[in-house]
Design brief:
Number of domains: 1
Structural class: mainly alpha
Shape: globular
Strand content: under 5%
Order of helices and strands: HHHHHH
Helix content: 55-70%
Number of strands: 0
Number of helices: 6
Length: 139
């Protein structure tokens, strides 16, 4: 066995869960800012039936689904698409460089959620609990 051979770590799925939970908690704050004006930000809260209001709903409740690990793959896929739209609609037109157009968080969340949509939620999740409790397919 070589040091370069992949060895499955018992911590890999646990750290995936921690990664998912921290990302979801951070993401929720973007949604609560848009929906409830907290944390306070200029021009917020946004009206519910606007693009910002719909984004706030996705970010708050999609972020909550991510934190809980509930229907993680479909929720992550939707949030990945939302972040791709956010980047190309609001950040990309001002500059091609994310460091200039302030789009780095949108890109990172887009690819983080794209990864979760394939990798799943990890060991510490409602999806894992549901999968252990019933033989049928979950979310």
């Amino acid at each position: 066995m070589s040091i370069l051979d992949p060895v499955p770590s018992p911590w890999a799925t646990r750290v995936l869960s921690i990664f998912r939970i921290v990302a979801g908690l951070c993401f929720i704050t973007f949604g609560t800012m848009k929906l409830f004006g907290y944390p306070p930000h200029e021009g917020m809260p946004a009206p519910l039936l606007t693009q910002a209001g719909i984004a706030g709903v996705l970010e708050t409740f999609g972020g909550l689904a991510i934190v809980l690990g509930f229907c993680t793959k479909p929720a992550a896929f939707v949030l990945s698409g939302e972040m791709a739209v956010a980047y190309f609609q609001f950040h990309f037109p001002s500059s091609i460089f994310p460091s200039v157009n302030m789009g780095t968080p949108a890109i990172l969340y887009c690819f983080l959620y794209l990864y979760l949509s394939f990798a799943g939620p990890g060991r510490w999740s409602l999806d894992a609990v549901l999968a252990r409790s019933r033989p049928g397919p979950g979310c």
